[in-house]
Structures are given as structure tokens and as C-alpha cells.
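The freezer alarm interrupted the setup, so I double-checked each line after restarting. Inputs confirmed:
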Amino acid sequence: MILSLTRRALLGGGAALLAAPCLSAGAKAASVVIVGGGFGGATAARSLRRAIPDLRIILVEPHHLHVTCPGSNAVVGGLGPLSRLEHGYDQLRSRFGVEVVRDSVAAIEGDARRVRLLGGGWIAYDRLIVSPGIDLLWNEIEGYDEAAAAVMPHAWKAGGQTALLRRRLEAVEDGGVVVIAVPGNPFRCPPGPYERAGLIAWHLSRTRRGCKVLILDAKDSFSKQALFQEGWAALYGDMVEWVSGAGNGRVVRVNAAEGWVETDFDRFTPALANIIPPQSAGRVAVAAGLADAGGFCPVDPATFESRRMPGIHVIGDACMAGEMPKSASSANNQAKIAAAAVAASLAGRDFATAKAINVCYSLLAPDYAVSVAGVYEVAGGRRAGVAGAGGISPLGADPHVHKAEAEYAAGWYAGICADAWGA
Amino acid sequence: MRSLAVFMAVMVLAAASPARADGQARLMAETCTVCHSPEIHSPLPSLAGRPAGDILRVLLAFRDGSRPASIMDRIARGYSREELGAIAGELGRKGAP
Ligand SMILES: Cc1cc2nc3c(=O)[nH]c(=O)nc-3n(C[C@H](O)[C@H](O)[C@H](O)COP(=O)(O)OP(=O)(O)OC[C@H]3O[C@@H](n4cnc5c(N)ncnc54)[C@H](O)[C@@H]3O)c2cc1C
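Predicted 3D structure, all chains:
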């Protein structure tokens, strides 16, 4: 029994929370507030509960379901419905005694140790964990704003944008070209655009003739590049084409009304443009002053405590974690480390950090996946890959290797979601 | 011979870990359950209920490349023998953290 009866009664009625939005830290149990119920935030909530049975854990999240980005490229490719990616908060509430407040954090007051809710009222905290993911930087690519995204979807936050990209893909006809514009580093899910390219090619190669997927990249190399290029050639011939930054691939301008996309020298008018714009940490973190000039949040790599504001830990895509990529896998591990650090500091104990892992599978077709893995230690003030460890799947592998990796990818997805939101 | 050494390593680590290292072992072991989830049915084997010595033996074989692997060799090489012993001790003790 992790909750007292009165606390339980309070939690039983979500309305009680909404009717009394001014929650203050109880006299006895400490409070941790978590901003965001995605991979980082939800995993942190569960880890905190494991560490401290009577801790007050308040998770603020505006959506009643989290739609995961992992798996969303498969939805775009037509391999399954979007509903498969939805995860609710019932188990965090009922099994793990987390107070889930359906609202957005409008402001963080680090000095007063409280957050203001968009719906009004404040919540006080002893420690704050911030995991709001990313926000898209509108107009970094000239002409690419929220209105343009309704025509040229980014689908870099899953949900309506994913469904839109799927619908637009279904409308592409024979001979159509699909452009995917990819930003420079750092951005959410480094292999994600290339996974998407393969799954779009999979759909088009089965349902259309003479189509093409053209990746216009701001970069000169990309995650798992050799594996992607090997797989695209084997599966789709020359259907997927990648243009590097040096090859003039960086998209600088779009016009959604006229349907064109421009690099410095070329203009394309594709059947469908998927624009993945540059990104920053979630706006709430930037507005709080947690981010640096690059738009992401510097943290102590051992504890994920902000380098800018004490008592606040930033995890997931919003933080700068050295060589750890912005992935759900990284967010999961960072959440566990931050939760342990928070638990130790609340108890006045020393904290010894641990190595962290990233594992990331990418699908190129329903039964063809490749992987990258890394182990990251704290070295030289940052998270750095352990020498000799990690790396990508073997090149030139048998088909059964890629098929097995596709099965592991499904197992990874089920496991990491259970780890965050409950099985 | 080899399995005796493994057994000894687990016993020594289990007996001698200070609380600090214990928390660290738990934290490292908690990363395993993402894929090897005790909560769901998955193509990836659950580690629940496996003896620590068995887990360590497999981890060391992944680490030195003597056991074929898809991804575990790449991960196991990131840890020292002592760390793998501590992780195995944690997983074996609890079944799952
Ligand atoms: C197409 C695609 C495919 C991907 N595939 C993979 C994959 O296969 N493997 C992998 O490891 N990673 C993958 N990723 C990356 C993964 O989605 C992210 O790295 C991960 O979601 C980061 O977790 P997070 O907690 O930082 O953010 P999120 O999971 O995005 O969660 C952030 C949450 O915070 C909430 N929030 C935002 N602002 C506020 C506020 N002000 N107040 C309250 N709540 C707020 C949001 O509503 C959201 O629920 C993929 C990403 C994309 C785009």
C-alpha cells in the first residue's frame, strides 16, 4: 500500500485536483513535479515510485494519451493504425500512485520552486524533472511555419501530423516524388528520417509505379548510413536518393501554397513534401532559462541536474547529453538516473551515477531492421561512448539477421512502453 | 573451472558491495529490463528467475565474443567484468529490478 487513505481518496477523484489547482508540498512527504508524460517523464515517475514509496509524485501532461514517435514511421508506411501508438496514464495513477494533472506547465519559477499551470494555479516542488521533448523552430526554413505544416507535414511529433502524412502519402500517384527535408544536428531521433524514407519507399513500391523518395539533407553523413544505403539498394533499387549538405541538399525555403521546396540552387515541386525542421528543447524549458544559445539544456551528466538552475533535472530530448542521441531509449535511461539522483538528494545520501545505454532499431521494411547501440559513461564532464563498445549491425548480413532485428524492434517497443506507462 | 570463477565473482560481489555500489548496480540493471521486460511477452527473453551465475556467464560470453549475438555483444563490451558481475547479481537476486 503506497498511499495513505486520504491521499488515495484525493487521487480517486481527478476532479478534486482540478477544483483545487493550488497544490503545495505536504509537510511530511517530499514532492517531485514532472513536466511531460512522454518517455522521459513517465519513466521518471515510475522510477521515483520504486525508489521512494511515500513520495508525492505529480506529473503534468496536457494530453490524456501519449502518442509515441517510435512506431510512427511504420504508421506512415501503412503497417498499422495510429491507435497502436497511444498510451494512457491510468496505470501511473492506479498502480503507481502518481498524481497526473492534465494541464500544461506555463512557467517554471526555479527560485520559488514552483510551476505555474496554463489552466491557472501553482504547484510547489522539492525537485523538478523536466522532460518536455522538443519544439519545432518555425521559419528557420523560410516559409515553414505552423500553417505550412498543415500542407507539408513534419510528423516529428506523433499524432495528427502522423495521420496527415499518411493521408498525403496515400494520395501520391504513379511517378510521384516524395521529398523528406532533414535538418542539421542536433535533432530528435538521428536515424528517424532515414527509417521513414525506407518505409515510405516500401509503401510506394507496393502500390505505385515509378515513384521516388528524395532525401534533402543539411548534413554530410547520418546515423547507420552504410546500413541504410545497403538496405535501400537491396530492397528498393535506386528508388531512395540521398542528397548531402555538401551536395546542396539543405532546404532553405518552402512555399506551401505553391508546393515547392528550395535549396540554395534548386527548386523541387514534389507530390509530397515532409519537412523536418530544426528543433529546440520544449518551449517551457527554453522560456525558463534552462537552455543555452543552441536551444537545448546543459546538464550535469552524472545526475542530469540543470547546469543553470539547481533542483531541476532535465532529461530526454530537451537535454544535452553529450554523445547520447535524442532517443526514447536515451530518455528512458536518463529518467532512471535522474530519478535515482533525486531520490538520493532528497534522502541526503551520496549518489553514484551509472553507465547508460542507447539501443535504437530502425525498420527499412516490415521484416528488415538495423540497429545501433552505445554505452555511455561520464568522462570529461559529459556522457561519452565507452571505447570498444557499441556500434551498428553487421554490414552484408543475411536476411534472417534483419528479420530477427525487426522482431527485436517490436519487443523493444513493447518493453520500453511498458516501462514508461505500465504493461 | 570457468563456471566456478563466475560463481565466485558473483558471490564476492554480492557479499562485498557497499551500499553505494549496490545502488549503482541496480541502476545499471534497470536498463536491461527495457528489452528484457518482466511485464510483457516479447521475442526477447525475460531474465526473471534466472540465477545470477547463469546471467553472468552469458554476459561474459557476449563480452568476449564467444557467444553469437545480435546486439548484446556490442553492449556487454561497454562494461568491466566487475560491472557485469554486479548487474548479474542484481538481476539474479531480484529476478527483475
Ligand atoms: C519519427 C520518429 C521515430 C522515432 N523512433 C524512435 C525509435 O525507434 N527509438 C527511439 O529510441 N526513439 C525514437 N524516436 C525518438 C523519441 O520519440 C524521443 O527521443 C522521445 O520521445 C524523447 O522523450 P521525451 O520525454 O524527451 O519527449 P516526449 O516523449 O516527446 O515527451 C514529451 C511530453 O511532454 C509534454 N509536454 C511538452 N510541453 C509540456 C508542458 N509545457 N507542460 C506539460 N507537458 C508538456 C508533451 O505533451 C509530451 O507528452 C523517434 C522520433 C521520431 C520523430
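Quick read of the result. DSSP finds twelve helices and 25 strands in chain A.
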